[in-house]
Amino acid sequence: MLLKIKFNHIFWIGILLVAFLSSCSSEKNPSLQPKPKAYSKLNELTVIADTALWNGPVGDTFRYYFESPYLILPQPEPMFDLRHFTARQLSEESIYRSYRYYILLGDMSRDGSITNKLITSDLGEDKVNSELAEKGGSSSVGKNKWATNQTVFYLYGADTENLAEVIGKAYPSIKKRIHENDADRVSATVFQGGSDGGISTRILEQYGAQMKIPKDYKVAIDDGEVMWLRKETSDLSGNILIAKYPYTSPDQMSTENLKKIRDELGKKYVSSNIQGSYMRTNDEDLPLFVDQITHKNRYAKEIHGIWELENDFMGGPFVSLAIVNEDKGELLFLDGFIFSPGEPKRNSMQYMEAILKSVRF
Asked: How far apart are CA 308 and CA 173, in angstroms?
């Protein structure tokens, strides 16, 4: 009995000692503490900049690029939703350090700037000074500074003019990097309810293509030539048209021909309850934006624009994807369009793109 009491006593002393040492170790070495996971809504950016800088010409330049319209929507929506904090606010509130994407703006001519000190501390004084002396400014990228799955962009210049130039040059690569980083996130949202294997099998059998279709889409029409998939909610109608054509000439991939294909499908299949109504491409009010791309190692074109119903008052954005399957001499045409009056459409169109771009031969 005595041995048992002594053993228990020694055991609990050991447990308390380990806990005490662990606590001391964590306090002395904050890096041992696990970092929280970064979070934010899709297309959100947090900007860290001195207030005077953000409210001046540099802030205007930054907003000119990063709040430029998402192409292409009936009513303008920004490419990114911006929030602004100062470096002091960042240091005082831990919640401000938990977002997914940050951009630090530094006019390095501003003495006493906390933001500049943060940039110099993170990148190294020698690196910053070298870039300023050689190019007048530069950009850099860091990962997981305050949280996991976090990206921090540093944009700095010798003065406001140089910083504005850095912003303009860095914008395309930052936009591309964020959208590529979020591709899996977008896909996870689109397919959070799973995919419809039955529809995917029908697409494979009829069009020779593998394509993931979310479970909330249903087959509205399948006449052997065209398949029309629809998703209906209280605030959005999502639609996908799938068609296949013989491919005989590169001229078939011209903007004029792809628009013709789309308008023929719209006139034949899409209408409202009003007699004589049909869907057409509206490239008079807003232009078509056409990109030649390589999709899964296939020659393709991606078209963004707006649609409207002739003889009715309905319309919205669309994205078309035309892909050449040279193995079979075929042109696969996919068209995704939404109707969501009075609602934001940017994210919905990103989700639509994710569905269309899941296709592969």
From this structure: 33
Give the C-alpha separation, 109 to 98, whole Å. 29
Ramachandran area for residue 194 (φ above 0: left; ψ -120 to 50: alpha; else beta): left
pLDDT tens column, 34-86: 789 999 999 999 999 999 999 999 999 999 999 999 999 999 999 999 999 99
In the beta sheet, which residues pair with residue 323? 300, 332
- For the domain bounded by 194-356, which CATH number is listed? 3.40.1000.10
Class of domain 44-181: alpha beta
Q: Which two tokens stand for residue 93?
A: 């509130």
Tell me the β-bridge partners of 71.
none
110 burial via Cβ count (<10 Å: 0-12, 13-18, 19+):
middle
Buried b / exposed e over 131-146, threshold 16 CB at 10 Å, is bbeeebbbbbeeeeeb
Pairing of strands 101-107, 151-157: parallel
Alpha-helical regions (H) of the chain: 2-28, 51-54, 57-66, 87-92, 114-123, 125-135, 160-181, 183-190, 197-207, 255-269, 346-356
Q: For residues 43 and 100, give the distance between their C-alpha atoms in angstroms, rounded to a whole number.
A: 10
User: In 29-159, which residue ranges form alpha helices assigned H by DSSP?
Assistant: 51-54, 57-66, 87-92, 114-123, 125-135
- The residue extents of the domains of the chain are 44-181, 194-356
The bridge status of strand 315-325 relative to strand 298-310 is antiparallel
Please report which residue ranges of 152-251 form alpha helices under DSSP H.
160-181, 183-190, 197-207
Contact 156, 116 (CB under 8 A): yes
Which residues of the chain register pLDDT less than 70?
1-33
How many whole angstroms separate alpha carbon 52 and alpha carbon 113?
Answer: 11
Contact 72, 317 (CB under 8 A): yes
DSSP 96: G
